Sequence to fold (510 residues):
Amino acid sequence: MALSKRQKAQYLRYSVYTFSCLVLVALALFVDWNRLAGAMFRWDIVVKQFPDILTKAAKNTLIFTVMGFAGGLALGLLFALMRLSKIRAYRWFAATYIEVFRGIPLVVTLLILGFGIPIAFQWSWPNPYLRGAVPLALVAGAYIAETIRAGIEAVPKGQMEAARSLGMGYPRAMVTIIIPQALRIIIPPLTNELVLLIKDTSLISILGVTSGTIDITRFGRDGVNTTANATPLIVAGLVYLAMTLPLTQLAALMERRAKAASR
Amino acid sequence: MTQAPVVSIRDLNKSFGDNHVLRGIDLDVERGEVVCIIGPSGSGKSTLLRCINMLETPSAGTITVLGNDLTDRDCDIDTARSKIGMVFQQFNLFPHMTALENICIAQRKVLKRSKADAEKIAKDLLARVGLNEKNNAYPGQLSGGQQQRVAIARALAMNPQVMLFDEATSALDPELIGEVLGVMKSLAEDGMTMLVVTHEMGFASNVASRVVFMDAGVIVEQGPAKQVITQPREERTRKFLTNVLER
Fold:
């Protein structure tokens, strides 16, 4: 008997469910849960992570993120506008910036700006936060510039024409008409940038940290070293999630609002 | 004393790459005139209109509006544009602003009117185009005809000396065309100087003081509306009108 398309899809679904259940059962039966819990979920170690992982590490991660994102947003807007400029020198400068900082791994940028430049110029960073946040902002700025440029280009051409035909100059039209619409369009990719940035702050610790600037990842690694147990890393992961999940939810809410407002 | 024309175009040429769209246009529009520009698609009529407020940069020739040569590189184009109202085929309302805000924004930012003055003018204009209930509606909540009437009000708020209509009814459902043409007709009756690119022959013959027929980048013929539409002199005009009116 030939199966209809709907029946075939139904059987496929049943077999996927069955297989998934079997995998779960196998995991439950064959994994040594006690050993796993001992290596990764020791409650006494979990408790020891607090409150420092929040009051010190998460606070620093947040500071690096906010500085990096604020700087990245400002640089991104500036370079996006330069990429769209009529003046060729601006376009080239912006394109070079974007290609350079997008093409070099963040770790390398961090090392060059954190160690290379200070050695070369006999200079030292005035503030340990700036030392980590500036490279972060420079790299984020390159990505955000491309995001903002795409958003500006996604605003229909007629919007600029209408604004100009009412006598607004180019900068005025950009600020009041085009950029507000572009920002609404890029809320989802911009949220993505922010989440990536939160996670990228974990790389700053390769520059070496003092107890004052320790971030969540370094805090977790130090915890592993002192306890010889993976639990601090699990806690660190959960703290990152506690930061990123509300953010993505908030962005989803803003996206719905923006859609509702312009419908 | 004879007044200078509101719009004066001399030997206007415009090319897009190899495509020579306007080939030597001369046109004067006097104060209070309603000039309808008709012609087949691709004849350059929209490009001509868009050149008049420099949304397209002419390749050659001069465009003088209210005594200012817009093709002069030192001309303050923003000030000149604020006196030229433009209505687009696609309305181009600002979707992130209410109808009222759409009409206020340029009054506030360009003419530096106070918020209260701008809102008073905006409300009066919305009433004039028959939309006094829609102050706080976003463009997405309005029909095409309503959006276009808001767009006309937005242009009028700047006290333009001349209004340009670029196929203002072409994107509308047939049953919504009338309400927009009605607003345009009442504007014409109030003495507004208007240049109207349109396919609405009824509007052209009833409202226009002059009809200009364009084809292949040149003005083929022009004259009083009734004469051009009912007794065209040129063969090309006759052919176009036969095609349009036979629909």
